[in-house]
Amino acid sequence: MTRDLLDNPLTGEERKLLDAYRLLRELAREAPTPCVAANVRAALAPIAVAVTDLGLSFEHLLDDGC
């Protein structure tokens, strides 16, 4: 993805944030133990807010099993 939801080009920092968000989402789905899942979700929540606020992505994490 190279553009945000408003069709603006992503900055390098926005790309890094979006990469971190996607990685944490993947980890939350694949977490091997409940304690790992809980901690990954705790890290994911504020990053998801930033990603949504910046218009980089809009997803309902509960729909994804996170």
Question: What is shown here, in short?
Answer:
With about 70 residues, the chain is mostly helical. The chain has helices at about 10-30, 35-55.
Characterize the main sheet: none
Uncertain runs: none
- The mean pLDDT is 90
Number of helices: 2
Describe the structure.
The protein is an all-alpha fold. It has one domain (about 10-65). The chain contains two helices and no strands. It has helices at about 10-30, 35-55. Helix 1 packs antiparallel against helix 2 (about 35-55). The longest helix is centred in the middle third of the chain and has 20 residues, at about 35-55. The chain is elongated. The two termini are about 20 Å apart. The model has no long low-confidence stretch (mean pLDDT about 90). It holds the Pfam family DUF6052. InterPro entries: DUF6052.
